[in-house]
Design goal:
With 697 residues, this protein is mainly beta. The protein has one domain: Maltoporin, Chain A, CATH 2.40.170.20. Helix content is 4%, strand content 58%. It contains 4 helices and 41 strands. It has a 22-stranded antiparallel β-barrel. Strands 3-8-9-6-7 form a 5-stranded mixed β-sheet. The longest helix has 16 residues, at 2-17. It is globular, with a radius of gyration of 25 Å.
C-alpha cells in the first residue's frame, strides 16, 4: 500500500507541474457533462424526479465524462469507484455477482437490482455487458424494494444511455491495446424536429485473452462481442410522448482462467486443463415507454422484454485429466409491465402510485460427463416465475417544522415459482430416467415498507432511512439431495443516517452515510456434496455495518478531485452448520472490508494558435480488501490497489488518448474457491496499455 501511495503522489505532482491558469471544456460532448451541478441532477432511478441533493439515500453518480476518463467498459470497472460497490471478475460474463454493503449472491438471482434504459435485468448472467454511449450510471445503496420490489436488498444500479433529443451528431471511437485488444464504436444521433429523434449505435470488442493455458498453449479468455442499440422518440404533444429503446449483444468468450492454488508456497500454479471452456451468449432487450403529463400528475407506462440465450462449456476439474465436463444451456424470456402515476406541481405534498407485473420463463439443460465411471446425465428444468405488485409513496414537506420532509412508502409483492424437473442418466450405455417431477409451487406474499426523514439546513441535507429488504427464495438448479432442492427468502432491516453538504465555500461537495443492516435467513453459496456444482442454503443471522464517504470538488483552474471510501463490517451473527461446526462471528465471504478510490484530473487549455485546443490528464487509484473467500475465513485477499492513468489530446471534434489500466502491474486474486479436493484461484488482469481515437462529425 505504501509503495502504491508513493507512485500516486509522484504522478499527482507531475500533474501539478503541468498546471495552467485557465479552465476549459472539451469539444467532446461527453466531457462537457462534467459541468452539471451534481446537487441539482435528477436521479432517474428514484422514479419520483428527485434531485441528488434532496434524495434521502446514499447515491453515486458516474457521468459520461468519468466513464470516458476512467475507461469504464463494463459494470465491474466501477468497483470501488462507488463506495462499498464491488463486482469482481469471476472468469466469464456468466458469473457476474454484484455486492453493495456486503449484500450479494454468487449464484441464482441477484441481491442488487440492475436497470438499463428502464429494462430490469433479473438474471446476473446479463449483468456483464459492454458499455457504449452511456450517459450516466446511478448507484443507489440500501434496500430499494418499496419502489423496485424483489432482489434489491443491496440497492440498484440504474444505467441511462444517450438520447437523440439531448445529443446530436455522429461519432466514431477506435481503440487498440496490448493483449490483442481492439474496440470500435460508431453512433448516429439525430433530431428531425422538436418532436422526433432517432439513434443507432454499434459496438465491437475483441481481445486475444489475458491468460495462457499451459496444456494447450492457447489463451484461455479470448473474447469477441458485438453490440447494437436503437432508440426512437416521438412527442405527439407537449403532454404525450412514446419512446422505444432496443439493445442487443452477441458475445463469444473463452473463460475460466482458474489455476490450482499451491497452499504451501502461497502461489498460483500455471493454468493447466485439457478441455476448452467457454461461454457464449445472445442478449436482447426492448423497452416501450409511454409518458403522459396531466395538469397535476404524470403517468409513465413501461413495457419491457428481455431475451437471453446462452451456453456454458466448462472443464469442471480444471486439471490435465478428463474427470468432469459440464455443458449448461439457458433460454430465458422475461416480460414486465409497470405503470407509475406521480404528482407534479405541488412542492408541499408529492405522491406516487404504481402497479407492476412480470413473467420470467426459463428452459435450462445441464449435461454432465463423469469419465471415470463412464457415466453421463442430463438434468432439464422448465422454470417459470411470475409476480405482481402494487406500491405507494408519499412525501410531505415542511412536516411539523420548516424544511423537514417525511417520506413513507409501502409495497405489496406477490410471487409464484414453478418448476418441472427431469433427470436422465446414462451409465455404461444403460439409459434410465431417475426423475420426472412437477414440484409444488413456491408462493410468497411480502409487504415492504420504507420510512425516510430529510431535514434541510441552509445548503445541507440530513436524512434518516429505515427500510425493509427482501430477496425471493427459489429452486436450486443443481442439487443432489431432496432437502437441497429449494431455499427460503431472506430479509433485512436497513438503518441509515447521512448528510449531503457543500464545504469550503461550496468548492467541495460531501456525501457521508452510516448504515446498519440486520439480515436474517441469508442465502449462502455452497458446493453440492459431490463437489460438482453449487447451490444456495440459508445461513441464519448476519449483520453488516459501515460507513460511506464521497468527496467531489468543483472544477477549479482546470483541476478536479474526487474521493470515495467505503467500509463494511459484515459478519455472521449465527451460522451453525452442524453440531461440530459453526461460523459465528466470521466475516462474510466475497465482501471487501474497505473500498477506496482517488481521482485527480487536470484540464489545460492551450493558446488559440496551438496545434491542439486542450490536454487532459487523469489518474485513478482504486483499492479493495481484505476479502475472505470462504465462510471459515481460512483464505483471503489482502488489501490491494490498482492505478489507472490517461492523457487526452483534443482539437475541435478530434481526440486522441493514451491510457493504462493497472499501471503498476499489481498482482492479486480476483477469485478463489475449493472443489473436488483442490484449491483454485483466478489472478487479476495484468497491466494494460492502449490508445484511443475519437472523431465527431
Amino acid at each position: 500500500m505504501r509503495k502504491h501511495s508513493r507512485y500516486l503522489f509522484v504522478l499527482l505532482m507531475l500533474i501539478n507541474v503541468k498546471a495552467g491558469a485557465q479552465e476549459f471544456t472539451f469539444a467532446n460532448d461527453s466531457i462537457t457533462t462534467r459541468r452539471i451541478d451534481l446537487g441539482e441532477l435528477v436521479i432517474s432511478g428514484s422514479k419520483e424526479n428527485t434531485t441528488f441533493k434532496s434524495i434521502p439515500a446514499s447515491v453515486s453518480i458516474i457521468s459520461s465524462g468519468s466513464i470516458s476518463d476512467n475507461e469504464i467498459q463494463t459494470l465491474s470497472d466501477i468497483s470501488s469507484t462507488a463506495p462499498n460497490f464491488f463486482m469482481p471478475d469471476y472468469g466469464s460474463k456468466l458469473t457476474s455477482p454484484v455486492y453493495i454493503r456486503g449484500i450479494g449472491s454468487r449464484i441464482n438471482s441477484p441481491s442488487v437490482g440492475l436497470y438499463v434504459d428502464y429494462v430490469p435485468y433479473f438474471e446476473k448472467a446479463a449483468f456483464d455487458f459492454d458499455f457504449f454511449d452511456i450517459k450516466r450510471i446511478e448507484v443507489l445503496r440500501g434496500p430499494q424494494g418499496t419502489l423496485f420490489g424483489r432482489n434489491t436488498m443491496g440497492g440498484i444500479v440504474n444505467i441511462v444511455t444517450l438520447s437523440p433529443l439531448e445529443y446530436q451528431g455522429t461519432h466514431l471511437n477506435l481503440s487498440a491495446g496490448n493483449y490483442g485488444s481492439y474496440l470500435a464504436n460508431v453512433g448516429h444521433y439525430n433530431k428531425i424536429n422538436d418532436k422526433f429523434g432517432y439513434s443507432l449505435a454499434l459496438n465491437f470488442l475483441h481481445n486475444d485473452g489475458f491468460f495462457t493455458n499451459q496444456y494447450s498453449g492457447n489463451q484461455v479468455d479470448k473474447l469477441n462481442s458485438y453490440g447494437l442499440r436503437n432508440r426512437l422518440i416521438y412527442k405527439f404533444s407537449d403532454k404525450l410522448s412514446v419512446e422505444n429503446i432496443l439493445g442487443s449483444e452477441l458475445s463469444k468468450q473463452g473463460g475460466y482462467p482458474y489455476a490450482i492454488y499451491n497452499d504451501s508456497l502461497d502461489v498460483a500454479e500455471k493454468i493447466n486443463y485439457n478441455q476448452y471452456s467457454s461461454y457464449n451468449r445472445t442478449l436482447f432487450s426492448d423497452a416501450l415507454l409511454v409518458k403522459y403529463s396531466g395538469n397535476k400528475y404524470e403517468m409513465v407506462a413501461t413495457t419491457s422484454f428481455q431475451y437471453l440465450d446462452d451456453i456454458q462449456d466448462i472443464d469442471q476439474d480444471f486439471t490435465p485429466d478428463s474427470l468432469y465436463f459440464i455443458s449448461q444451456t439457458q433460454n430465458q424470456n422475461m416480460l414486465s409491465q409497470e405503470i407509475v402515476m406521480r404528482s407534479s406541481g405541488d412542492p408541499k405534498y408529492k405522491w406516487l402510485f404504481g402497479g407492476y407485473g412480470f413473467y420470467q420463463g426459463f428452459d435450462n439443460v445441464v449435461d454432465v460427463d463423469v469419465y471415470a465411471s463412464k457415466m453421463s446425465y442430463v438434468k432439464s428444468y422448465d422454470h417459470v416465475i411470475k409476480g405482481m405488485a402494487a406500491f405507494h409513496q408519499s412525501t410531505i414537506s415542511d412536516f411539523l417544522v420548516r424544511n423537514l420532509a417525511i417520506t413513507g412508502g409501502i409495497r405489496l409483492d406477490t410471487e409464484q415459482d414453478l418448476l418441472d424437473y427431469q433427470y436422465d442418466r446414462n451409465l455404461k450405455g444403460v439409459q434410465a430416467n431417475l426423475a420426472d417431477t412437477v414440484y409444488p409451487a413456491l408462493k410468497s406474499v411480502e409487504v415492504i415498507p420504507r420510512l425516510a426523514i430529510n431535514y434541510k439546513v441552509k445548503n445541507s441535507n440530513y436524512y434518516l432511512v429505515i427500510a425493509r429488504g427482501y430477496k425471493t427464495g427459489g429452486f436450486n438448479t443443481t442439487f443432489e439431495r431432496p432437502e437441497d432442492l429449494s431455499f427460503d427468502p431472506e430479509y433485512s432491516w436497513n438503518y441509515e443516517f447521512g448528510v449531503k453538504t457543500p464545504l469550503l465555500k461550496s468548492h467541495l461537495y460531501a456525501d457521508v452515510a452510516l448504515f446498519y443492516i440486520d439480515w436474517k435467513n441469508q442465502q449462502i453459496y455452497q458446493t453440492v456434496p459431490s463437489g460438482r456444482g453449487s447451490m444456495l442454503k440459508n445461513a441464519g443471522h448476519s449483520a453488516s455495518k459501515g460507513l460511506e464517504v464521497s468527496l467531489k470538488t468543483i472544477p477549479l483552474r482546470g483541476y478536479e478531485f474526487t474521493a470515495a471510501y467505503g467500509y463494511t463490517h459484515a459478519t455472521f451473527l449465527s451460522y451453525v452448520v452442524d453440531s461440530l461446526t459453526n461460523h459465528n462471528n466470521n466475516y462474510l465471504p466475497y465482501v471487501p472490508r474497505n473500498t477506496i478510490s482517488l481521482q485527480a484530473s487536470r484540464s489545460i487549455k492551450l493558446k488559440d494558435n496551438s496545434v491542439l485546443d486542450n490536454i487532459r490528464l487523469n489518474l485513478l487509484y482504486r483499492g479493495a480488501g481484505e476479502i475472505f473467500w470462504d465462510e471459515e475465513n481460512s483464505h483471503k485477499q489482502e488489501f490491494y490497489g490498482l492505478l489507472d492513468a490517461k492523457i487526452s489530446f483534443g482539437r475541435k471534434s478530434f481526440q486522441f488518448d493514451i491510457w493504462s489500466k493497472n499501471l503498476l502491474n499489481t498482482e492479486y486474486a480476483s477469485f478463489y474457491f475449493e472443489a473436488l479436493g483442490n484449491k483454485y484461484v483466478q489472478t487479476g488482469r495484468p497491466a494494460q496499455v492502449g490508445v484511443n481515437l475519437s472523431l465527431k462529425f
